[in-house]
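Course assignment 3, question 2. Fill in each field.
Student: A.L.
Task: Predict the tertiary structure for the chain below.
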Amino acid sequence: QVQLVESGGGLVQAGGSLRLSCLASKNISTITRLGWYRQAPGKQREMVAGIFSGGRIEYGDSVKGRFTISRDNAKNTVELQMNSLKPEDTAVYLCNAFLFTHGVSWGQGTQVTVSS
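Answer field:
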C-alpha cells in the first residue's frame, strides 16, 4: 500500500481558486496512475482527474477547462489546481494511487466547500 496525505482544502467563494496537494509515501515516478476523486453527500464518488506515469492526463467532464492536475516527482506530490470553482464542486476530495504491484490506495480526503 501507498500512504497518501491530502492537504489544501478549505472554504472559498464561487469563482475562486484552491490548490490541493497529495503527498505519497512512495516514489511517485514508480506509480502507474495518480488521481483525484471527489465525493459529495448522497452522491457517488466521481473521478476528477488522473495522471499516468507516461504523462497522459484525463479529466472528468464537469471539471475540464477549470482544473489542472500535475505531478512533482522531486516532492513526491500530485497536485490539483482548481479554478473558477462552483458550489457544485463542494465535496471531499480524495487522492488515489494505482500500482500493478500494490493495487489501489486512497488518502483520507480533504474537504472543499464552495459558497455561492
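Instructor remarks: The chain has a mean pLDDT of 96. Residues 52 and 76 are 14 Å apart (CA to CA).
Grade: pending
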